[in-house]
Amino acid sequence: MVTDLNLDLDRGSVLGLLGVNGAGKSTTLRMIVGLLAPSSGQVLIGGADLREEPAAARRLGYLPELAPLHAELRVEEYLAFCARLRGLRGVSSTQAIDRVVERCGLGDVRRRLLGHLSKGFQQRAGIAQAIVHAPELIVLDEPASGLDPRQAAQIRALIRELGQEHAVILSTHLLPDVQACCERVAILHEGTLRYDGPRQALGDDLEAIFLRVVSGGEAAVAA
């Protein structure tokens, strides 16, 4: 259960959503993208209430922790399918696919089956489907989890790049993800927001301050 959560985010920034397992991160993300309806409150995307105007969901892109890939499809076939789901057709679809293939570094594997790709390339394909329609808000759930250090560094570089043009919410339990990608941090613990503010205000030892916040419930900047 998540209570009294109030977050806002503008284009051009990356928000790191931190919390231990069971803190409420996944529940929060599912409410943001419309998979769960909040019992109270609103989710607004560009001023549109997601519950009252479901079409506003087209203004966001979502990569869940388990990327929704189809192993039997080639990368470009999968992205064409995702583009159609977002209402893209013809030349618009082709241009969008070419754009995300280049941006996500999928050029060398665009004609390979998704099931034959490494975990790193599968995550890139997952991000590509989330941004193929150029959404205003991108929601990423543990995008670097399970990757080797080189793959994780590449995904973090891509997230930083996306954060220059989009609003990005990055849910993670990996503090290096936050340190590499995020200007702002929100820390959840037991469904409650314990901190929301600049990452720089937490200092260099983010892990120690994070542990203090979730255990003591004190404002991190006062630690």
Element layout with pairings:
Elements: E1 13-18, H1 25-33, E2 44-45, E3 48-49, E4 60-63, H2 75-85, H3 90-103, H4 119-131, E5 137-141, H5 149-162, E6 167-172, H6 175-181, E7 184-189, E8 192-198, H7 206-216
Parallel strand pairs: 1-6, 1-7, 4-5, 5-6
Antiparallel strand pairs: 2-3, 7-8
Please provide a brief summary of the model.
This protein is α/β, with parallel strands linked by helices and 223 residues long. It has helices at residues 25-33, 75-85, 90-103, 119-131, 149-162, 175-181, 206-216, and strands at 13-18, 44-45, 48-49, 60-63, 137-141, 167-172, 184-189, 192-198.
Describe the protein:
The chain has about 220 residues and is of the alpha/beta class. The protein contains seven helices and eight strands; from the N terminus they run E-H-E-E-E-H-H-H-E-H-E-H-E-E-H. It has helices at about 25-35, 75-85, 90-105, 120-130, 150-160, 175-180, 205-215; strands at about 15-20, 45, 50, 60-65, 135-140, 165-170, 185-190, 190-200. The strands form two sheets. The protein has a six-stranded mixed beta sheet with strand order 4-5-6-1-7-8, with helices on both faces. The chain has a two-stranded antiparallel ribbon with strand order 2-3. Strand 5 (about 135-140), helix 5 (about 150-160) and strand 6 (about 165-170) form a beta-alpha-beta unit. Helix 2 packs across helix 3 (about 90-105) and helix 3 packs across helix 4 (about 120-130). The protein is globular, with a radius of gyration of 18 Å.
